Amino acid sequence: MNKEKIWLSSPHMGGEELKYVNGAFEDNWIAPLGPNVTGFENDIKEYLTQNGSSDIEVAALSSGTAALHLALILLGVKRGDEVICQSMTFAASANPIMYLGAIPIFVDSEEDTLNICPHQLEIAIKERISKGNKPKAIIAVHLYGMPYQVEEINKISRKYGIPVIEDSAEALGSKYKNVHCGTLGDYSILSFNGNKIITTSGGGALITKDIQAKRKAIFLATQARDDAPHYQHSEVGYNYRLSNICAGIGRGQMQVLDKRVEARRDMFQFYVNLFRKIEGVRVFEEPSVDYFSNHWLTVIEVDELKTDGIGREELRKCLGTENIESRPLWKPMHMQPVFKDYPYYGTGIAEKMFRNGLCLPSGSNLTDNDRLRIEKAILNCLTK
Ligand SMILES: *Cc1c(COP(=O)(O)O)cnc(C)c1O
């Protein structure tokens, strides 16, 4: 097998990343602060508010996980507190709950967006309150770029007075009712890891509407140093700020973000057309015009009762023999060994999707030839 590997999602440079990185070298800003960091924050802020949505503040950080950790701290989450988290997600959504000694309460997905189910969320909140443990926060995720049911979730958040942390790590460029994901929660987070829609090699951001909260986040992210000529600390801090080099990559990537969204959406359309010809496979589309997904990854559900018994694992292996990467959906957190003993509210939607769902190669840098190979491999496997 000497065919070149087709990746699920790989970094795609193309703007003026090196110009900004070179600038950092020339000015010797090789540090977790500098003009690229401020510039990158402004670029993100400008991008996310381009439809005139409410004012936001952006803090560039070393990862999306760090941003989630700080969001929980800023909401006052402490040891023994309960925090609700969408079960079907990447472990990074839930791990920061554990860093604080808090207790994760997992909630199932609904079928339309694959994100946190409003109905199960409300059941969970009511039961936790009846046990005397009102949850401190709700972590909701826009999985694979698809916005969660924003209005329904916000309504529940207001009704019970529990803030939402919007995990928008996979959804930069997505919108709900024409408002950017990343501005829809009480706190929101982004990720710029290597496989995301744009990357800084590693990085993230915390987004808030409150300038004081941004200042506090940066204070905590830079070792919580008090205002004094010597090193003075009255709180425990972290080393979570983004480096000026990585931020330089981010500035170049922001210039091409809209193109990257367009290319991912185009890849999605390719799969929609392809699977029209094939029985038994559902491509996950936006449920209504209120939803605009960046289609970071295209997701399908395989119904082996209609595909002559070929399930998602067989399809994944077929693609693998052609050196084409595909991957099962995130394994739900309540099924993970590390989280299995924590409460879970649901009816098995996430479990079913984990069993039958597959993410297909969706990178913005896939070529026409890659598409031909993917199409041939899928047709070979499913229409024998
Ligand atoms: C990638 C990701 C994160 C974490 O971001 P990092 O920058 O890798 O720390 C969090 N949540 C989700 C849903 C992600 O996909």
TrEMBL record:
Annotated GO MF terms: transaminase activity
Signal peptide: none
Superkingdom of origin organism: Bacteria
Pfam family, any one: DegT_DnrJ_EryC1
InterPro entries: DegT/StrS_aminotransferase, PyrdxlP-dep_Trfase, PyrdxlP-dep_Trfase_major, PyrdxlP-dep_Trfase_small
Keywords, in A-Z order: Aminotransferase, Pyridoxal phosphate, Transferase
UniProt similarity note: Belongs to the DegT/DnrJ/EryC1 family.
This protein's name: Aminotransferase class I/II-fold pyridoxal phosphate-dependent enzyme
